[in-house]
Amino acid sequence: MRFGDRAAADLLKVSSYFPCKNLVSALNDSKIGIVVCDRRFRYKALNQSVAEMHNVPIKGHLDHSFHQVLGNFADKVLPLWETVFATGQPATNLEVTGKLPKRQHAGTWIENLFPLRDARGRLTQVGCIVIETTLHRRHGLPLAPPGVKANAGTDSRLAGPGQRHGVPLSHREEEVLRLLAEGKSNKQISSTLAISTRTVETYRARIMLKLQASSVVHLVQYAIRNGIIVIEDE
């Protein structure tokens, strides 16, 4: 499913979830998932990274409830989504730990939820950018220093609705950005594009500089807004 203008504009309202450099560094090779659900907590859209996290294909999610896909783990995440539907306000930097039905070990994720409204301004869906930090948590890597709180607001450095950033990306930069937004690691991008890992790192740094992005989440927002990645619904 390609996001409509209003949904994309709402997505751009999601702010700098991860304000510290330590966190951005720790998440460089983490999977980044994107989910949209309706008021009945059924999956309406998701990307391949979420399917891989759950070990369930995209089609196995669509129009299925959280409980059908996540089992008992749904009891941990449902209250977070219910709060956004109830308040109409984003909920950011929410750490969730537990065991998914089709995974052998427990995992850790950071969820960032935001309301999505229809053309009449009604809150009909909630979106989520979820980042898996299981390996970082397991290895004791820092996610955020003490005292860092969830952040809200609009990042003025990102392109507004209907606009691309003032500095255009080259075809190769868009390819790298698309793969980054799909949750691919530098090594995976290197293999896919047949370029060295060092070259991927150079492109990555150049893209973040051009877009004035301080985190991978900002790159995901830009990629969705500009149609560089597409979320499937069937």
* CATH homology superfamily name: PAS domain
Whole-number total of structural domains: 1
Portion of residues in beta strands equals 15-25%
Strand order of the largest sheet: 2-1-5-4-3
In total, the number of strands is 5
Q: Indicate the overall shape.
A: globular
Architecture per CATH nomenclature, i.e. the level-2 architecture: 2-Layer Sandwich
Characterize the biggest β-sheet. Answer: 5 strands, antiparallel
Structural class: alpha+beta
Q: How would you describe what is shown here?
A:
By secondary structure, this protein is an alpha+beta fold. It is 38% helix and 17% strand. Strands 2-1-5-4-3 form a five-stranded antiparallel β-sheet, sandwiched between helices. The radius of gyration is 17 Å and the shape is globular. Residues 1-29 and 136-166 have low confidence and may be disordered.
Fold blueprint:
Blueprint: H1 5-12, H2 21-26, E1 32-38, E2 43-46, H3 48-54, H4 66-70, H5 74-87, E3 91-98, E4 107-117, E5 123-132, H6 134-138, H7 171-181, H8 186-193, H9 197-211, H10 216-225
Antiparallel strand pairs: 1-2, 1-5, 3-4, 4-5
Helix pairs in contact: 1-10, 7-9, 7-10, 8-9
Question: Care to give the gist of this entry?
Answer:
The protein has helices spanning 5-12, 21-26, 48-54, 66-70, 74-87, 134-138, 171-181, 186-193, 197-211, 216-225; strands at 32-38, 43-46, 91-98, 107-117, 123-132. By secondary structure, the chain is an alpha+beta fold.
